[in-house]
């Protein structure tokens, strides 16, 4: 059974690099590209076009929204679903306005795009690891590879509240939250787990939002235990 891995905003396959060895026996691993499209529907369609006929689907952060859209487009192809540090909630009006203003500023700017700033990267990590230079560099490098145009598309992309559609998800589902996530709350993960039939919720300790980079071994262990108990 293949495993399709979907990253978050300004992330790419590098997000999963420290988990590849552990997850490889549950692959082949397919890395979804969310950098080229401007809507959840378009992102989902692109990944589906490149994915195997049937697969386990893993969505991190923004990738969780895309994963659920993929299930709406092709529910028969997703055998198991894993949602990591994500939400079904729509951004607040304040957050939407901030993202739009950031995108306008970037689009109006000339010169070389320098990637995500220190504050944005630090917020995606736990308090304890916010100044970890290795992690900072990994996240920054992914954002530089993604580029300004991708960042603007992702900032402006609508993420409607799909809480009312969660009951339609019929495949086995694992929801994973990070205990020290400063971007997504445990409550948001609980809503997902409560509204997806039969879903399981697990919490990774000592990790911020970028849990695949901060706690890759712990995250992989939780995923593998769940996969072994939900073999297809």
Helix vs. strand class: alpha/beta
CATH superfamily of the largest domain: Alpha/Beta hydrolase fold, catalytic domain
Tell me the total number of β-strands. Answer: 6
Query: What is the C-level CATH assignment of the largest domain?
Result: Alpha Beta
Describe it for me?
- This protein is of the alpha/beta class.
- The protein has two domains: 2-91 and 160-229, Rossmann fold (3-Layer(aba) Sandwich); 93-153, no CATH class.
- The chain has helices at residues 20-23, 40-50, 62-73, 93-108, 118-123, 133-146, 148-156, 186-195, 211-214, 216-229, and strands at residues 2-6, 29-31, 55-60, 78-84, 173-178, 200-204.
- Helix 2 crosses helix 3 (62-73) and helix 4 packs antiparallel against helix 7 (148-156).
- The longest helix is centred in the middle third of the chain and has 16 residues, at 93-108.
- The termini are close together.
- The mean pLDDT is 96.
- It comes from Erwinia typographi.
Short description:
The protein is α/β, with parallel strands linked by helices and 232 residues long. It is built from ten helices and six strands; from the N terminus they run βαβαβαβααααβαβαα.
Output the keywords.
about 230 residues, alpha/beta, Rossmann fold, 6-stranded parallel β-sheet, 10 helices, about 15% strand, globular
List the helices and strands and how they pair.
Elements: E1 2-6, H1 20-23, E2 29-31, H2 40-50, E3 55-60, H3 62-73, E4 78-84, H4 93-108, H5 118-123, H6 133-146, H7 148-156, E5 173-178, H8 186-195, E6 200-204, H9 211-214, H10 216-229
Parallel strand pairs: 1-2, 1-3, 3-4, 4-5, 5-6
Helix pairs in contact: 2-3, 4-7
């Amino acid at each position: 059974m293949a495993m399709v891995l979907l990253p978050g905003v300004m992330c790419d396959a590098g997000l999963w690099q420290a988990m590849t060895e552990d997850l490889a026996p549950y692959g082949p691993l397919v890395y979804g590209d969310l950098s080229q499209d401007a809507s959840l529907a378009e992102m989902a369609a692109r990944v589906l076009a490149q994915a195997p006929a049937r697969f386990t689907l893993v969505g991190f952060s923004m990738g969780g929204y895309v994963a659920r859209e993929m299930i709406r487009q092709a529910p028969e192809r997703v055998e198991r679903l894993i949602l990591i540090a994500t939400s079904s909630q729509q951004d607040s009006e304040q957050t939407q306005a901030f993202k739009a203003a950031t995108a306008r500023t970037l689009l109006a700017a000339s010169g070389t795009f320098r990637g995500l700033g220190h504050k944005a990267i630090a917020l995606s990590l736990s308090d304890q690891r916010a100044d970890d230079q290795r992690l900072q560099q990994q996240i920054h490098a992914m954002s530089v590879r993604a580029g300004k145009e991708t960042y603007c598309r992702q900032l402006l992309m609508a993420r409607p509240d799909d809480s009312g559609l969660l009951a339609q998800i019929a495949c086995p589902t694992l929801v994973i939250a990070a205990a020290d996530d400063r971007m997504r709350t445990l409550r948001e993960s609980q809503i997902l787990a409560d509204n997806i039939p039969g879903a399981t919720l697990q919490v990774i300790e000592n990790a911020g939002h970028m849990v695949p980079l901060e706690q890759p071994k712990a995250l992989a262990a939780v995923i593998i235990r769940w996969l072994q108990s939900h073999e297809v």
